[in-house]
Amino acid sequence: MDHVLITGAAGFIGSALTEALRADGTHVTPVDDLSVPSWRPRPAGLQARDVRSLTPEDLDGVDTIVHLAAHKSVPASFHADTFGHNTAVDRHLLTVFAASGARRLLLATSCEVYGDQPGPLAETASLRPRSPYAVGKAATEHLTEVYRLMTPADRQQFTTIRLFNTFGPFEGDDAVVPAFLDAAADGRPLPVEGDGSQARDLTHIDDTIGMLRRILAGRELPPALNVGSGHTTTILQLAQQIIALTGRGSIEHTAPRPNEISSFTADMRRFESLYGPVPRRDLRDALADTRDRRAAARPALTAR
Q1: In terms of DSSP H, where are the helices of the chain?
Q2: Beta-bridge partner residues of 165
Q3: Does residue 251 lie within any of the structural domains?
Q4: What is the band of 296 on the pLDDT scale with cuts at 50, 70, 90?
Q5: Which of 56, 135, 250, 263 can bridge 129 by disulfide, Cβ–Cβ 3.0-4.6 Å?
Q6: 213 part of a folded domain
């Protein structure tokens, strides 16, 4: 793995992966169109460009592409063209990669492709998306499989990485963990959608990056792979933990989300069979780390 190109490299996960791989001595080319605000500093050498401007020649000398660029808001996808944007970007990158000399392509999708079905959710489960965002990611999964089947594995490898609910200090404030932490810090009620019984597989950013590093260090890529903790927490429990952790806040129940998913739990057996035990930071410790580092970053971001 001599040269990795990362799209969405200024974002929450992309910037953390860029930093970690560079610390390992890997040559990383970061690409991001900067259309999505990010709490993290931009990586050095960032190419500020649309993924759809990439050509096969841009991948000369690149061994692996990690495609993280996306518009990821599920609620926004019901009224914005998230589906059209993400599928156009994903399809362009697939065609560019297939025409290049690069060897591996990892495309990030989401646990949202599974929809509402009993877990733990294995990679062999059917795809039952329930939002325009999730439909777009499911379309990318199917398109990736088309290219994978038509390409000799000894020439190029394709895989989709189904990310579960990664959180951490520099995540955007539209996600549940930072939204709850910011509300508690400001003395506002924590907005719990519906009754809060919906459960999520919360994975600290350090654990997600650790798993991605192991995948990238491996020799073979499976067609699809879950990246999560394998454990769930309800949104109500999360709110209660953050109130206990911060000593501030109250719970305010709001309207339930359209087509809400009752639970996401990753079945991590495929990952464990290929890459070893799943790293899992204790949730309370991970929330405390997120609170402390986020609080330290907020004044500088407010001053921008």
Answers
A1: 12-23, 82-98, 132-150, 176-186, 205-217, 235-246, 269-275, 283-302
A2: 202
A3: no
A4: confident
A5: 135
A6: yes
**Helix (H/G/I), strand (E/B), else coil: 294:** helix
**Confidence at residue 1, expressed as pLDDT on a 0 to 100 scale:** 59
CATH number at residue 141: 3.40.50.720
Residue 257, SS3 per DSSP = coil
Domain for residue 145, yes or no?
A: yes
Say if residues 290 and 178 touch (Cβ distance below 8 Å).
yes
Number of domain units in the chain: 1
In the DSSP assignment, the letter for residue 263 is B
Other CB atoms within 10 Å distance of the CB of residue 292:
11
Which CA distances in Å does 290 have to 84, 203, 210, 262? 33, 12, 17, 25
CA–CA separation, 148 vs 241, rounded Å? 43
Tokens of 260: 């809400």
Residue 28, phi-psi category: left (phi > 0), alpha (psi -120 to 50), beta (remainder): beta
Sign of CA dihedral 285, 288, 292, 297: positive
Conformation bin of residue 73: beta by default, left when phi > 0, alpha when psi is -120 to 50: beta
Q: At what angle do helices 205-217 and 12-23 cross, to 10 degrees?
A: 50
The rounded distance, in Å, linking the Cα atoms of 7 and 94 is 13
Q: How far is CA 229 from the centre of its chain?
A: 13
Burial class (CB in 10 A: 0-12, 13-18, 19+), 285: exposed
Q: Two tokens at 234?
A: 């309800």
Given a cut of 50, whether residue 302 has pLDDT beyond it is no
pLDDT of amino acid 300: 54
Q: pLDDT digits over 15-71, tens only? A: 999 999 999 999 999 999 999 888 888 999 999 999 999 999 999 999 999 999 999
pLDDT tens digits, one per residue of 172-229: 888 999 999 999 999 999 999 999 999 999 999 999 999 999 999 998 899 999 999 9
